[in-house]
Amino acid sequence: MTDRDLVREEYVIFPYAKQHGGKIPREMESGIRDGALQMIIFDELVYQEARRRGFAISPARLSKAETDLRRQFGSPAEFRYFVTTEFQGSEPRLREKIKRSLMIEQLLKSEIESKAKISETQLRTFYNQNPKNFEYPEAFAIQTISIIPPAKASRSQLKQARQRAEDALKQARATKTAQEFGLLAEKTSDDDYRVMLGDHKWVPREKMPPQMLEPALKMQDGQLSDLIQVDGNFVIFRMNRHVTAGKVKFEEIKDRLRMELQKKKADELRAELGKKLRKNAKIETL
Q1: What HEC string does 37-90 produce?
Q2: First to last CA, the chain
Q3: Which of 12, 24, 83, 205 has the most C-beta neighbours closer than 10 Å?
Q4: Separation of alpha carbons 16 and 104, rounded Å
Q5: Could you give the CA distance from residue 115 to residue 138 in angstroms, rounded to a whole number?
Q6: Are 211 and 103 in contact (CB under 8 A)?
Q7: DSSP per residue over the chain, as a string?
Q8: Where do the structural domains in the chain lie, given as residue ranges?
Q9: Backbone φ and ψ of 242, nearest 5°
Q10: Which fold has domain 3-118+260-279?
Q11: Packing angle between helix 178-188 and helix 155-173, nearest 10 degrees?
C-alpha cells in the first residue's frame, strides 16, 4: 500500500481537508493519519482473508460495479482523468481495484453485517431489561424574553428596565406563535438565548427557577407567563410544551434502538475480526 492510499483514506476520515487545500489541522494530523493507516491495514487483511477463502466476483457483478462508478462522473473525460491520475491510465488496474473492494465488501457482509442483525425479540428483551434507558423526566419546552438591569443598578435604571419589560410583555401578548415570540425575543431580550429566538429547548423540572416553575405547572401549551422577577431580572416566558415524566413506548423507539444496537454489535464484530486477522499476519510500516 502507498502514501497515496494513506492520503485517500485520510480524506475519508476528514473530508473537510479538501476544502483547505488538502491540509489537515496540525493538532489532528497524527490521530487522523494513525486512523487511516489502521483502516488500510484492516482492509488489506480482509482482502487477503477473502482470497484465502476463495471468494469470487462474477463478471456481471464486476461489470455492474464499474458501470455504477462511471455514472458518478459528469462526463467520459472526467472518468478518463480519474483513471489516469489514480491508475496510471490502466482500466484493468481499475477493475482489479473494484474487484478487491467487492471481495472486501462480501467478506464484511458475511462476518459483520449479517451477524450484527438484531431480531424483534432481542430488541424487546433489551427494552424490558433496561427500563431506565427509556425513561424521561418532567420537562418544559420554553422560550424567554429577559430584560436585565445593569449590575448595581440605580433606582432610575431599575425603573427603566421594568418599563422595557412591561413594553415587551405587551408586545409578547400580541404574538400568536412560537416563531413570532422568538422574533420578538431576538429583538428585545438581553439574555444569550435571544440568538436562538429565546428557545431553551427542554428544561428539566429541577432546573426551572422556582419563580418560573410555579406558574409553569399551571400553564397550557402556547400560553405566556406574566412578568416575573428571577435573580433581579425581568422575565417573560412562553410555554411551548410541558411533558410529565414517563417512558418512551417500545413502538416509538424500536427503529432507532435497532440501529444503535446493530451498530454496537457491528463495531464489536469488526474489532474481533481485526484482532483475529492480525494474530498471524506480518505487518510492516516503512
Answers
A1: HHHHHHHHHHHHHHHHCCCCCCHHHHHHHHHHHHCCCCCHHHHHHHHHHHHCCC
A2: 10
A3: 24
A4: 26
A5: 38
A6: no
A7: --HHHHHHHHHHH-GGGGGGTT---HHHHHHHHHHHHHHHHHHHHHHHHHHHTT----HHHHHHHHHHHHTTSSSHHHHHHHHHHHHTT-HHHHHHHHHHHHHHHHHHIIIIITTT---HHHHHHHHHH-GGGGEE--EEEEEEEEE-PPTT--HHHHHHHHHHHHHHHHHHHT--SHHHHHHHHHHH--SGGGGGTTEEEEEEGGGS-HHHHHHHTTPPTT-B---EEETTEEEEEEEEEEE-SEE--HHHHHHHHHHHHHHHHHHHHHHHHHHHHHHT------
A8: 3-118+260-279, 138-244
A9: -120, 125
A10: Triger factor/SurA peptide-binding fold (1.10.4030)
A11: 160
pLDDT tens by residue, 165-181: 999 999 999 999 999 99
**How many C-beta neighbours within 10 Å does residue 8 have?**
13
pTM: 0.67
Q: Which residue matches cell numbers 424487546?
A: 124
**What are phi and psi for residue 116, nearest 5 degrees?**
-90, -5
CA 133/CA 135 separation, integer angstroms: 6
* The residue to which cell 417573560 is assigned: 236
Q: What is the pLDDT of residues 105-141, one digit of tens each?
A: 999 999 999 999 999 999 999 999 999 999 999 999 9
pLDDT at position 37: 85
- CA-wise closest residue to 172 among 114, 122, 116, 222: 222
Instruction: Give the fold, CATH level 3, of 138-244.
Output: Chitinase A; domain 3 (3.10.50)
